[in-house]
TrEMBL record:
Any Gene Ontology biological process: carbohydrate catabolic process
Keyword annotations from UniProtKB, A to Z: Glycosidase, Hydrolase
Lineage: Bacteria, Bacillati, Mycoplasmatota, Mollicutes, Entomoplasmatales
Protein name (record): Glycoside hydrolase family 1 protein
Keyword Ubl conjugation included in the entry's annotation: no
InterPro entries with a match to the protein in the record: GH, GH_1_N_CS, Glyco_hydro_1, Glyco_hydro_1_AS
Source organism (scientific name): Mesoplasma syrphidae
Length: 469
C-alpha cells in the first residue's frame, strides 16, 4: 500500500481488562461469589482473590492511563458486585464502585467501554443450572442489564455484551472451564444450547439498551480469527472454511444477521442434537441490531482435513489445538513464530481477520483484545524493557492501518491488557500489561505499579493518533 490513510479523529486508543482478573476484592462490600471465585489456584498458580487489586487501587491505575494519554479503557462489570446472588437484591456499594471508576475515567478524558459480562457468572445462578437453565439465567441477566444501563447509561456510550461468547461454549468442548469451573462438562448439545441462550440474552440486552438509551452504542465481543488451510488441497480448504464457521462466523451470524449458521445446525443434527429454539427467538435475534462488531484477536488458526490422527495428546486452549472429528484438525503453520506460551504470532492475520469480518458484516470494528503474554520481572531500577511488546503492537497496528487504508472501518484499539493481571489459566506469570504490577504468583509483595517501556512507546503513538507508525 503506497498511501496509508490516517487513523480517524477520535480513534479509541486504550487497553482492556476484566473484573475477575484485575479487581480482587472478591468479598469486599457485599460482593457475591462468581464461578471464578471457585478457582482455588494450584501450588504454582494464583487464585482470583486479590489479582491486581484494582478494586482498591483504581485511582492510581486510571492516573497512569491518563498519563499514557488513553482515549478509552475497556473493563467489565462484576455481576456479583451489582447483584450478589445473581437475580436478587441490588447491592448499592457495587453500583457506587463503578460510578466512581466511570467518573474517574471521564475526569481523565477517557471513554469507558463496558463489557457487561466477562466469564464471571454468579455462583448462585450456576447452582440453579447456569446458562443451561434459560428461564432462570436469561431473566437474571436482563435484570442485571437493566440495573447497569439505568445506573451508567447516561454516562457511558460504548457497551459490549458478553466477552468471547464463542469461547465460553467452545472451550467447554476442548477442556477448559470458563462456563462452570467445578461442574461436570456439558455435552456438545448442551454447550450449543447454552450458546443459543447466550445469543438470546445478548440480543435482548442490545435491544433494551437501544430502547432506553438511544445514544448508546452496543455490540458483541467474540474472539475471532481467520482460519488458514494447511495446504491448497481442496479438502483442507473446505476444512478451513468449516473451522472458520465453528470458530468465528456462527458466533457473529447470530448477533449481526439474526441467524444460526446452517453448517453448525446440520452438524448438531447429525450428532443427534436439536437446538431448542422457541417461538419468537428468531424475531428476538433479528431485532438486536448491533452498532459495531467488537472482537478479540490474538492469532490465526491453521487446519487440515480430519484424518483420524489423534489430537488428544496435544495442548489445547483458546488459541490452539481445536479440532472436530471428521471435519478439521489443528495443523502446524511453519510460517509463524510462537510466543513463549505457544500462541502463533500473526500480525498479517489481524488484517486478514478484520477484512473477513468487514466483508461479511459491514459494521465498524472495535478491537477489544490483542497482546502478548510473557514472563517478566522488574529490573533493579524498577523498569521493564519489553521491546518484544513494542514490536508486537507496532506490527499489529501497521496491519490495522493498512486495513483502514483499504476501506475497513475501525473505531478503536484496546489491547490486552492495561495493567498486569491474572491470566485465565496461567496465573500471574503470564503478563500482558503496559503497567507492571509488583507481585508474583503467590507473593503479593507491595502490588505497586510501574510503567513498562511499552507504555511510553504507546503514549507517543496515542499522541500522534497512530499516524507515526
Ligand atoms: C481472552 C480473554 O480469551 O484472552 C481474557 O477474554 C484472557 O480474559 C485473554 O485473559 C488472554 O488469555 P490468557 O489465557 O492468556 O489469560
Amino acid at each position: 500500500i503506497k498511501n496509508l490513510k490516517k487513523f480517524p479523529e477520535g480513534f479509541l486508543w486504550g487497553a482492556s481488562s476484566s473484573a475477575y482478573q484485575c479487581e480482587g476484592g472478591w468479598n469486599q462490600d457485599g460482593k457475591g461469589m462468581s464461578v471464578q471465585d471457585l478457582h482455588e489456584g494450584t501450588a504454582e498458580i494464583s487464585d482470583f482473590k486479590v489479582t491486581s487489586d484494582f478494586y482498591n487501587r483504581y485511582k492510581e491505575d486510571i492516573a497512569m492511563m491518563k498519563a499514557m494519554g488513553f482515549k478509552s479503557y475497556r473493563f467489565s462489570i462484576s455481576w456479583t458486585r451489582i447483584i450478589p446472588n445473581g437475580d436478587g437484591e441490588i447491592n448499592q456499594s457495587g453500583i457506587d464502585f463503578y460510578n466512581k471508576v466511570i467518573d474517574e475515567l471521564l475526569d481523565a478524558n477517557i471513554e469507558p467501554i463496558i463489557t457487561m459480562y466477562h466469564f464471571d457468572l454468579p455462583l448462585e445462578l450456576q447452582k440453579k443450572g447456569g446458562w443451561l437453565n434459560r428461564d432462570v439465567t436469561v431473566p437474571a441477566f436482563m435484570k442485571f442489564a437493566k440495573a447497569i444501563f439505568k445506573a451508567y447509561g447516561k454516562k457511558v456510550k460504548y457497551w459490549l455484551t458478553i466477552n468471547e461468547l464463542n469461547l465460553l461454549v467452545l472451550m467447554n468442548m476442548f477442556g477448559q472451564d470458563f462456563l462452570s469451573p467445578t461442574d461436570k462438562k456439558y455435552t456438545i448439545g448442551e454447550a450449543f444450547q447454552i450458546g443459543h441462550h447466550l445469543f438470546i440474552a445478548q440480543a435482548l440486552a442490545m435491544k433494551e439498551l437501544h430502547e432506553t438509551f438511544p445514544k448508546c452504542l452496543i455490540g458483541p465481543a467474540p474472539n475471532i480469527s481467520s482460519v488458514y488451510p494447511a495446504s491448497s488441497k481442496p479438502e483442507d480448504v473446505l476444512a478451513a472454511q468449516t473451522a472458520a464457521v465453528f470458530r468465528s462466523w456462527y458466533w457473529l451470524d447470530a448477533p449481526v444477521r439474526g441467524e444460526h449458521n446452517p453448517i453448525v445446525i446440520k452438524w448438531l443434527d447429525e450428532l443427534g442434537f436439536n437446538l431448542e429454539i422457541r417461538d419468537g427467538d428468531d424475531e428476538i435475534l433479528k431485532a438486536a441490531k448491533p452498532d459495531f462488531v467488537a472482537f478479540n484477536y490474538y492469532s490465526t488458526m491453521t487446519v487440515k482435513a480430519w484424518n483420524n490422527e489423534s489430537t488428544t495428546s496435544k495442548k489445547s486452549d483458546q488459541q490452539q489445538g481445536l479440532g472436530i472429528p471428521n471435519m478439521f484438525m489443528d495443523a502446524k503453520n511453519e510460517h509463524l513464530g510462537k510466543t513463549e506460551f505457544g500462541w502463533s504470532i500473526d500480525p498479517v492475520g489481524f488484517r486478514v481477520t478484520s477484512r473477513e469480518i468487514f466483508e461479511r458484516y459491514r459494521l465498524p470494528m472495535l478491537l477489544t483484545e490483542n497482546g502478548i503474554g510473557v514472563r517478566e520481572e522488574l529490573n533493579s531500577d524498577m523498569t521493564v524493557n519489553d521491546d518484544y511488546r513494542i514490536e508486537w503492537y507496532k506490527d499489529h497496528i501497521i496491519e490495522m492501518r493498512k486495513a483502514i487504508s483499504e476501506g475497513m472501518e475501525f473505531i478503536g484499539f484496546n489491547p490486552w491488557s492495561a495493567m498486569d493481571l491474572v491470566s485465565t489459566h496461567e496465573g500471574f506469570q503470564k503478563r500482558y500489561g503496559f503497567i507492571f504490577v509488583n507481585r508474583d504468583e503467590k507473593d503479593l509483595r507491595d502490588l505497586k505499579r510501574y510503567r513498562k517501556k511499552s507504555s511510553y512507546w504507546y503514549e507517543e503513538l496515542i499522541k500522534n493518533n497512530g499516524n507515526n507508525i
